[in-house]
Specification:
Layout (H helix, E strand, L loop, with lengths): L4 H19 L4 H6 L1 H24 L1 H4 L5 H13 L6 H22 L1
Length: about 110
Amino acid sequence: MRHSPKKLYEDVLQAIEEILSFCEGRTFSDFQADRALQLVVEREFEIIGEALARLRREYPALAGRVTDVDKIIGLRNVLAHGYDILEHEILWDVVESKVPILKHDIEQLR
């Protein structure tokens, strides 16, 4: 059964909003010191990556319009399978510099 692109967009946007909400006013030092925050952010990136993987599989032309879609899906795979090699600096950089771009791209697709 195919997933609706609209549903996948909404899943990504909801996860983005959760990340932005939890990280608002926080610094990298806060992130490093707060295991609960790390877990929330990691989980939301897993959701984003899985939704984008489904989008890429079922609607490749739409997924191709998302900046760095392969890298985002790859991040999900690292979180799910290579959690022990993930560097928090990289994850925080994604929160600060890539999430706004992703949000813009998904909003444009809606």
